[in-house]
Design brief:
By secondary structure, this protein is of the alpha+beta class. Helix content is about 15%, strand content about 30%. It has eight helices and 26 strands.
Length: about 550
């Protein structure tokens, strides 16, 4: 290239940069210049003709001087795209935008305010520069957008109109700006569905949910707060996004729901009103939150059913249980703790779930239940009160928990029947038995160890005994048996313990009485002395020397 041509080229370039009209000016812009300087990673929807949008903007001239700003007014701009309500350049510049996208727009005069401008604000033939962020987009044909985020495996029931629901939520605008949250209030939002207490979109969005389900619900403005918005937190014509966790729900017409998880076979008897039931339980809310457990206290919950001692739902839920049964009882709040809840662990209007394991139950009118397992042939002589018996036994709770066993010792248990030395139910169960006979006895607590229980025996526990009668000795054993009226007048009175022992042994030697069978006769005689010494002065007179059956006694049960 010739040197002259190089200089000319450089001059033309310089003039073009300086904007000399006669040399290379590109002329006015033909269309909007769009710079998409921020595009969100997720763009679920782009602006199209006819969409309603909300956006913020700053408007400046080429020199940077601001002529308008929605930020300065403290309010977003809302309008419909492509219907002539915006300047043409803005209509075109907003096409295809995503929520939260940011654009620089350069709008030439003929797509802005043209040769007329806006008096006092925008001069004629002004090129306009806009910095825009899109905040919301919707269309009049939009529907509710529901996305299930998580759902429990078991879902026996879903929300219907007229149900009362308890749910947590986070509420944001479409651009992610938060406006409300139940979590910040540390309380669920509680309301009826389909009765007009909620915005239409939420009424619809909660339908079909399971307890424990999480959903994202996007609600267009015409199903939310519309043109008016709500206070200062929800602008007019705002789409709303709710992240919802359904905690629980019920219907005011609900009764309890019982699920039998494990029913032992056989089940000879089922609990009814008036029975006293001992059971373990875990109590949870529908979202699985544990609010109480008898296991944590290592003690059953013991109560009568059908008498109003417990919440109505549990009163109903324990009807018909078998010993050893496991069942789940779902109780609506109107059969539990109602709108007020209980303490700080059971919220108002909460549905409660009890997983129950029935340990035993009885009725205060129950007798001893006797089942003969084996009876030898030729059973002609059977036990009666005052007989001395030897027997083996295994004692357990009805859930199989072992308590005591004579097999843990070297010899069988010994007792004289009818002397209040064993619990009343066991005494009854040992009557009318033959040596060698085996029985199973079910003894209710009022014939056992009562409400207080005993060492190793829970209060109000029903006991199961497996007994085998080893041997028996007939007789009327009360220390010693006197076949005929003893001659008390011949006794030198008063008697010391040694003199009393000599007297008893003499009676036995002369055939005038028999000592109770025992491995320790001296202990028997010492016990007799204590029992006969009415005034506890350490001596026995003729008046005090008489059979214990001659006076009324208070029954005292000894532990096994």
């Amino acid at each position: 290239m010739a040197p002259g041509s190089s200089i000319l080229t450089l001059l033309l370039l310089l003039l073009g940069v300086l904007g000399t009209p006669a040399l290379g000016n590109p002329g006015p812009l033909e269309d909007v210049v769009i710079d998409r300087y921020y595009i969100p990673k997720i763009c679920l929807r782009e602006v199209q003709m006819g969409d309603f949008i909300r956006y913020h903007y700053n408007g400046t001239f080429k020199d940077g001087k601001k002529f308008d700003s929605s930020y300065d007014r403290g309010a977003t701009v809302a309008g419909v795209v492509g219907v002539g309500r915006l300047i043409t350049g803005m209509d075109r510049g907003l096409q295809g935008m995503c929520v939260n996208e940011r654009r620089h727009l350069i709008v030439p005069p003929h797509l802005g305010y043209g040769s007329i401008g806006v008096a006092g604000l925008i001069p004629p033939d002004a090129t306009l520069y806009f910095d825009v962020v899109l905040l919301d987009i919707w269309n009049k044909n939009d529907q509710l957008q529901i996305t299930t985020l998580s759902k429990p495996e078991r879902c026996n029931r879903t929300v219907e109109n007229s149900d009362f629901v308890r749910y947590h939520y986070n509420g944001t605008l479409l651009d992610g700006t938060p406006f409300d949250s139940s979590y910040s209030k540390d309380s669920t939002y509680d309301t009826y569905v389909g009765t007009g207490w909620l915005i239409k979109g939420m009424d619809q969005g909660l339908l079909g949910m399971c307890a424990g389900e999480k959903r994202s619900i996007i609600i267009p403005p015409f199903l939310a707060y519309g043109e008016k918005g709500y206070g200062t937190v929800i602008p007019p014509q705002a789409s709303l996004v709710f992240s919802v966790l359904l905690v629980d729900f019920h219907n005011p017409k609900d009764g309890i729901f019982v699920e039998r998880l494990e029913v032992p076979a056989p089940c000879k008897r089922r609990a009814a009103s008036g029975d006293f039931v001992r059971y373990h339980y875990n109590g949870t809310l529908m979202d699985g939150t544990l609010f109480d457990s008898s296991y944590s206290r290592n003690h059953t919950y013991d109560t009568y059913i059908g008498k109003g001692y417990i919440i109505p739902g549990m009163d109903q839920g324990l009807q018909g249980v078998c010993v050893g049964e496991r069942r789940r009882v779902v109780i609506p709040p109107h059969l539990a703790y109602g709108e007020n809840g209980a303490g700080n662990k059971i919220p108002g209007s909460a549905v409660l779930i009890f997983d129950v394991h029935v340990i035993d139950f009885h009725n205060p009118e129950d007798p001893v239940e006797i089942e003969t397992v084996y009876q030898p042939e030729g059973c002609n002589v059977t036990t009666r009160d005052r007989d001395f018996v030897r027997y083996h036994y295994n004692c357990s709770l009805l859930d199989g928990t072992k308590l005591f066993s004579s097999h843990d010792y070297e010899k069988p248990q010994e007792v004289t029947l009818g002397t209040n030395k064993v619990i009343e139910g066991l005494n009854s169960g040992l009557l009318n038995m033959c040596p060698g006979e085996r029985r199973v006895l079910i003894i209710p607590p009022h014939l056992g160890h009562g409400e207080s229980g005993a060492r190793g025996v829970p209060g109000s526990a029903v006991l199961r005994f497996e007994v085998e009668l080893v041997s028996m000795e007939e007789g009327d054993w009360l220390g010693f048996e006197v076949p005929s009226n003893p001659s008390h007048d011949s006794v030198i009175s008063p008697l010391s313990p040694l003199q009393f022992s000599t007297f008893i042994k003499t009676q036995v030697a002369e055939g005038k009485g028999r000592l109770m069978p025992s491995s320790d006769p001296e202990k028997i005689i010492a016990d007799m002395f204590t029992n006969q010494d009415r005034n506890q002065d350490g001596k026995i007179t003729s008046e005090e020397l008489k059979l214990k059956t001659d006076e009324d006694q208070e029954k005292v049960h000894e532990e096994l």
